[in-house]
Amino acid sequence: MAEERIIVEKVSKKFGKETVLSDVSLKIKNGSIVGIVGRNGSGKTVLFKLICGFYSADKGKVIVDGKELGKDIDIPENIGSIIETPGFLGNFSGYRNLKYLADINGRAGKEAVCRAMERVGLEPGSRKKVRKYSLGMKQRLGLAQAFMEDQEILVFDEPMNGLDNQGVEDMRKLFLELKEQGKTLLIASHNHEDIDILCDEVYEMDHGVLGQRS
Predict the structure, then answer these.
(1) Full set of structural domains in the chain with CATH
(2) Element (H, E) at 179
(3) Which pLDDT score, from 0 to 100, does residue 142 have?
(4) Which residues contact 116 (CB under 8 A, 6 or more apart)?
(5) Does pTM surpass 0.85?
């Protein structure tokens, strides 16, 4: 396994005339947690979508596990992500939502789905429909979806949204456990305490420009 799981090399991205990423470079080492802080609209979410293969760069390269996106592969298969508000089927239970998604790729069975839900503090046997979930419960379900297939790289954009204090503590503990298991995590958060506690390296995004925080 290469030491660097993700390499972003001089990437730029525009939407119309607006430059949202400008010459961004980033290297993320295997088994580390890297944090990115920045205001809304700074370009964090666009960068995350580029890494996940949802957008393509106008200039530069994104390489995941040695494979260049848009050239060698389109979508990295080993990334689990939660970007923006998770979308689920409101009339299904949490378990049925995750099992439905797991069946599409065939990478996670019933036990893996149940284990992922339990790890985020949700009860797999509950029949409660997702439309009756609180924002925090939906966020927990989204996190469970991201890692239920045992993905090696996890990309979380504002993963603590909607969580109460206990939920935040639970997720911090979970993320550190995932790191101990050898997972590589990329996290964006408005909460500097989350970043300071969790991250090995921290970068700051400002108007599409990325720099390492001192």
Answers:
(1) 1-78+152-214 (3.40.50.300), 87-149 (no CATH)
(2) helix 165-180
(3) 94
(4) 98, 108, 144, 145, 147, 148
(5) yes
